Amino acid sequence: MPFDAFRSALSSAVSSSPESPGSSAPVAIFDSGLGGLSVLRAVRAALPDERLIYVADSLYAPYGERDDDFIADRTLAIGEWLVSQGAKTLVVACNTATAQSIAQTRERLAVPVIGVEPGIKPAALTSQTRVVGVLATAVTLRSARFQALAERHTGDCEFILQPGHGLVQAVERCDTNSPELVALLRSYVQPMLDANADTLVLGCTHYPFLDEAIRSIAGNRLTLIDTSVAIARQLERQLDSFGLRAAPAQAQAIELPRFYSTNDGQALRQLAASLLGLDVAVEHVVIPSRRTLALESDPV
Ligand code: DGL
Predict the structure, then answer these.
(1) What is the pLDDT of residues 253-268, one digit of tens each?
(2) One of 37, 94, 225, 272 is an active-site residue; which one?
């Protein structure tokens, strides 16, 4: 069912019933890998009654090193799989996937789809020096969607755009503070400090897990802009507007998130435990798509 049909079916369901049929279904959150856990953390804090399913496409991360068609292909395949699991809404907790494929994903999926984008607007509102660093994947920074966003909010602000090569790979290895990682981060952040930046946009959902490493370099000189709390608020508004908000659960009935990974899931389990305090099993899942099937039949 296309989304418009879903919307009108839902509005008649909402007007006839205080709790629409889908409200007890889970919210799905997806990222190329572990970064979306920063969004999941904010969603759990804001919406503790919601059941959550998380998919990490770690076998194919980082998306920032992939071509546009590959990213769109994976986003759609994973979105379709999550809808087939009964998800009532999808959060694409990946700036790179949002930048490349959110419009097609919204067209194809029969549930509301929420994307993420670098916090350019809050950064422009926050910066006193009017110099803002933006750390994001190369794919995000070169996307038409990001360029339009930056143009809308530039005004008198200077944005220093820095692709975060190597940072997603580090977080995927659960490396958030090794000396090598700090040295790499320093090579990105120090030029921003030298240019008098006072604000840094974390334009990739993996990067909030590097906040301590960034602090060890910049001290309090940079205000870090992480949009995960804003995404959770946007999800809350969407659920409310479609009558999809879960009914309050008894504390003992609140389910832990269900985690799936396209690789062995070890790193997902480790990061969820160490950074979110969630000790849960991770299921391996195979989600074939046009491009990954082509890779398997022609690996070179
Ligand atoms: N967390 C993804 C993002 O927000 C990382 C993309 C990647 O895998 O390169 O962009």
Answers:
(1) 678 999 999 999 999 9
(2) 94
Measured between alpha carbons, how far is 210 from 79 in angstroms, rounded to an integer?
Answer: 27
Structure tokens at 215: 């602090």
- Give residue-wise pLDDT tens across range 191-246: 999 999 999 999 999 999 999 999 999 999 999 999 999 999 999 999 999 999 99
Query: Could you confirm whether 174 is annotated as catalytic?
Result: no
Question: Cβ atoms within 10 A of the Cβ of 286, count?
Answer: 8
Residue type, position 206, single letter: H
Instruction: Go through the domains of the chain in sequence order and give each one's CATH number.
Output: 3-116+229-297 (3.40.50.1860), 120-226 (3.40.50.1860)
Q: Which atom of ligand 1 is nearest to the CA of 97?
A: 10
Give the global pTM: 0.91
Closest ligand 1 atom to 66 CA:
9
Q: Is 75 in the pocket of ligand 1 (CB under 6 A)?
A: no
